[in-house]
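haha ok so turns out i had the wrong file open the whole time. this is the CORRECT one, sorry everyone. sequence first:
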Amino acid sequence: MDSTPSPSSSAFDLVSSALGRYIPRGGAAGDDRSADARGDRGTRAAGDPAAGRQEQILGAVNLDRDLIITRCNVDAPVFAGLEAGVGKPFVDLLPPGDVPTVTRRLRQVLETGEAHVARIQRLRRGDGSELVVSMSILPAAGPEEGLTVSVIAMARRLHLYAAETAIGTSLDIGETAQSLAESLLAWGDVAAVDLDFAVWTGEGVTGQAKGRIRLRRAALVPDRAWPEGYVTPGDDLPGDASRLLAQAVLRDDAPQTIVIPDREAVERVLGSPRVVRALVPGDRSAGVACIPLVLDGTPPVVLGVAEVWRRADCPFRDSELFDLQELVARTAHHVDLARQHQREHTQVLALQRRLLPRTGGDTVEIASVYQPATPDSAGVGGDWVNSFPLPDGRTALVVGDVVGHGLGAAATMGQLSMEARALLSAGLAPDEVLEHLDATVSLLDDAESGLTAGYSALGSTCCIALYDPVGHHVTLSSAGHLPPVLISPDGHAGPLAVRPHPGLGAEFALREPFDVHTFDAPPGSLLALYTDGLVEDPAVSIDEGIGRLADAVSTVHPWDTLQQAARHVVSALAPAHQRDDVTLLLARMIGYRAGDTATWRLPARYDAPARARAEVCALLRQWRTRDDTRDTVLVLVSELVTNAVRFATGPVTVRLIRAGHGLLCEVGDTGNGRPRLRRGGPFDDAGRGLHVVHRLTTRWGVRWTDTGKVVWAEVAR
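then structure:
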């Protein structure tokens, strides 16, 4: 075999030549086959030096796109008996139960071109015996098509090392349990991993009370159709089965491995036919070894039970039980690490969902989608959206993208979201809110304690949009965020013209003022706020990605359910291989009907309160408002207009809105003073008007505008 491949060599040639020196020359294949036929499963006597040289033996098989063998190099003695002839299907080398899973992996590498490395796999010899190998699936180098499958016959120590390495590659508890089960399959026909329910959900198990045992099946291999009543992944074990397994592996309060050698003993131990149907995989698999997943400690904590089932005519040897215990002991900490990340993942997602909008109120319809990049907590980022009605009748739409992932980003995300909501509810304009968030991000960067210790949110982005349902316009400010997309009722779609900004927490020399932009949004308009994970694609520019989003949102029909439309947009645009979280908020503008609002502009003169009362009284009679409500509103308007004339200059604006079950009264002026409710003395005259407003309304407040302020108050009708 040539050990110096040319630059144009295929993956098959490269694998064969690079590792060809491990293949012994002139070995006796018959001796090796006879050793494995005795059920040694690849393990040789420690004193045999020839066996030591053959513990790691590599072979290579080339497949076409139909998974037919086109070339093969399995000449080493350890592979004797494998019928890997040219023209034969590769799946003929596999145990029947493994064919669906391995075929799916082979097809996946063909379609994606991404290699699948170091899979623990059994190969079937012609005499029915099996060989455990580490199998890697590699895409063939161009211009060839197909696959190259490399296999390494594995000795016991190599198997343990490879299995532990494979199990520790994921932080998802289901994937971790699945990797453990696949590794255990080398010792039996069926392998299962059952975890304590508290471990599965990410909770702690140290303080769990005795007698409350609940196991859930986390993994099961091979992947095939199972008989009715048998417990499969995701199912809870029957209570009797959970207690029996727990009692078996916790004899004398010490976790121990137990072996039930045959079907008769299994049925005697399990007792109930229902439990037998739930746990025993079939008639052939009669003997079982139950190995506890133990977390070292005082006392030790049992996380679950691993089960390896085998035919009765192939009993477990002491050396094999030792290997099983060693593998499970080595990987128990991976299971606990996945449990901790599951808990963190659950906390982060709970916070994410807590921030998602619930409803948009009567004047705007809201729908949102949040899709994390990866299922583990380390991949959950700081994308967030929020929408909420403001007390003055407007609706706030907020979207942000906090730098980083995990709990630090989630904590910062929650803090910024709640701060934005509080400031907007207090009447601050969007640009003022962003100024406060900018200061908060800079302050958090210096934090040395708490969840944000060691985490920096500098460079985070945020966009705040306020929808006025009376004026039918949107006022927004952006801190480094991508521009929202607005679709008008006539179908015209495009991003809003928002001036770029460096983002929150920028260096002092780079800081810029936050601009305020106002856009018309007539009823029927659709506004899309999103994060960059939805539109970023390495294959296209960011402008093209935003254009694709505008095209997708413009296809939403006014009669479509908005939540379904949002999911459809995300499924159509989200990259196949997400590198970032995907977040989308759709807002369909409804607004108030023209007959539900009225606005008057009055000069700031002594007769303004009387004129305001007359206009409002006529409108309330037209709206057929109750007498007591009408009297309350007239007193309220009189007090607010009187204060505006007394403490401000310029014209006074009065606006009345019929909203839901209440009436909203707004009085705007050019003053910039903040009306505040104070506890005065019995002879104090100033401030009594605000006390009257406070007594008559369900809530009231102040918001600032470019020309002054607006005092609003709500009255139940």
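Confidence is low (pLDDT under 50) at residues 1-8, 18-56.
again sry for the mixup
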